[in-house]
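User: My instructor asked us to take a sequence, write out its structure as tokens, and then describe one feature of it. I'm not sure where to start. Here is the sequence I was given:
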Amino acid sequence: MVPSKKEMNAMEYPVENRDRRNRLSVGLGLFLMCIVLTTIVGLFGGLMISNYTHDRYVLYAEKADTATAQRELVRESAATAAPSLTTGESEAAAGTVSAFKESGAYTKAQIVEMSAPSVVGIDTITTATTNSYWYGYGQSYEVPGSGSGVILTEDGYIATCAHVVDGAKSVKVTLNDDTTYDATIVGTDAKNDIAIIKIDATGLTPAVVGDSETLTVGSEVIAIGNPLGELRGTATAGIISAVNRTIEVENQTMTLIQTDAAISPGNSGGGLFDATGKLIGIVNAKVSDSRAEGLGFAIPVNSVVDEISDLLNYGYVTGRPYLGISTQDVTLRSRDRMWYYSEGTRCVMVEKVISGSAAEQAGLRSGDLILKLEDVQITSGDELSSAISAYKPGDKATLTIQRDSKEMTVEVTFGEYSPQK
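Assistant: Let's start with the prediction itself. The structure tokens for your sequence are:
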């Protein structure tokens, strides 16, 4: 019997529905499989990314202690009596403090009130030379700069950072009361980044010098300076983040106080004050990095008291060893390894020997190559300076040099540095 059209349609629908269900089942299965695979891949990828970023973070954290902290560059006559620093309690230095607590504790406002008059703004003019085809080689132009300083004596001696006044042909000081003076540079000590300048003024409020050796991590401090060269008298508060932090600042290894008090360009040379309003540091550096915040540094006053006293009284730091040469870093390559990227021996070439110096007395000549100082390999002028600093005037040492392609040794007796040499 031939089924009717209606019966045929009734038979066909189940077959069509089974195909549709099968297709739906297959599609749903594929969809669920994609979700599972995506989840697995996502978890694996996330784990890999997490490990990668963690490694990167650890790498940065490991570099944090040794990464170069970028210093911001935005820097006379002596009295008849030798100038000296004000230490301990001093009403003159402390100034007038309103609402002094009977307990002897100071609020931040009180610390700023008595310390701010001891901090000044410094504006400098240096001369630079163009090194560009478009602006003409060798063209001189003036570069303004700014920094901060701390008054040390009532008659106008002011401490700042050496890099603030380095090369300055003009230095102006603005006091807390907006009075402006021309200043002269008394002396600088690049090794410790300290300088003394002098203004013709009397009756100033010197800072009271504290004891940086008593600082502990977590101690409260206040930094006062001239950020950006425009905001003189700005005070920022923080804590001591670390003491005796050894970092490298522009190729100079320094041991500094670390603080999270906000430090900006222009703060260099300003004061870091403790909870009793005493000067315990000279602000000189900060880490300039988008990955880091609150990493400021200051020179501990205890580490430079002798140097400051020498600068106040003599205009230079006494007792420093002196060789008496100017040098250039060079790399020696043998004749069969003249390719530019080949390795060579790095050393220091003597460019000039100062007349009457220890170097001249030892027989050093222009063109000599310094390879070693005693057993210390010398690969740069900075390394040579660092090695020499371990000696005292009058000490003897052996230099290994190369002259006319021949290696030889010479004995030197270090002299004492003075600005006249």
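For the description part of your assignment, you could build on this observation: The chain has three domains: 1-64, 91-314, 321-416. Try explaining in your own words what that tells you about the chain.
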